[in-house]
Amino acid sequence: MICGPSVLTGLLLFGCGTVVDASMDGEDVTQARMGHEFKIKVGQLIKIEGEDLQIRFKAVAQDSRCPADVNCVWAGNAEVALDLLEGKCTTTLTLNTHDSNAPEKGKAGRYGLKLVKLDPYPRSDRKIAPDDYVATLMVSKE
């Protein structure tokens, strides 16, 4: 199924990923508003009000951010994997917190997605459990 062009971390891709109907699996879906920041937890599904768009926070693929209680030469980077479900088409985006080669913004179909913030911020004395991550995102219409 061709769903139109998508941009994934700066690369132009054509086509559609997996066909998914997320509303069929009995999940509790939270709503968010276009153009407003919202928080999403790992594994959570968010529906954008008035749009045929849902976002799932898949995982933090890597987190090399400098811990808050350490002096580092480089700020580090965290890489966030998200699924955007538009109609029956799924596009996976990878967004970054501080990587000049891979943006914190991405585009899928007619929507733009920005990673505003990723919490919690690392500390040297604590390991972050994968399920503890919360991303702050904002969706816009392109």
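Second entry:
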Amino acid sequence: MIRCDWAGADPLMMAYHDEEWGVPAHDDRTLFEFLTLEGAQAGLSWMTILRKREGYRRAFAGFDPSTVAGFGDGDVERLLVDTSIVRNRAKIISTIENARALLAVQSQSGSFAVHLWSFVEGKPLQSARQTLSDLPSETPVARALSKDLRGRGFRFVGPTIIYALMQACGLVNDHQTQCFRWRQLGGEL
């Protein structure tokens, strides 16, 4: 079975690649989880974040935006000593602020998913990347979405983070063309 080069040989990374990465996500909780994890990953490896994922789920109430939006200073202090997550004050506070911003988007657009997917006209962008070097770190769509989210009060949403979110949540199919998942997720030559 041929996978994207980045999937490597670690069972956790391969499972993530095979079962999640690039699968279209339309659930606000899932999108909030990936927004949080992609922001937490800034400056770190994705493997570090995957290994801490269950800790994040526990620490941030299963990524329920309504619950996380209600977190206060005491929660920030509690999370700063929680070794099951990345203990970075700015990243923790951004997760809480992003939950609040997400709730505002929900009240305006009906759902966070509807808002995000509007940037790709409701369907995954299909790329045809042959090699890892073909993968961009950002795109015009990611830059536009990043700018929109920053304007709405989201943090840790630069274009590179947003493009990673788009890839993870299937707004773009960036599996390499030789990867078995590329065709499964709509890719064709």
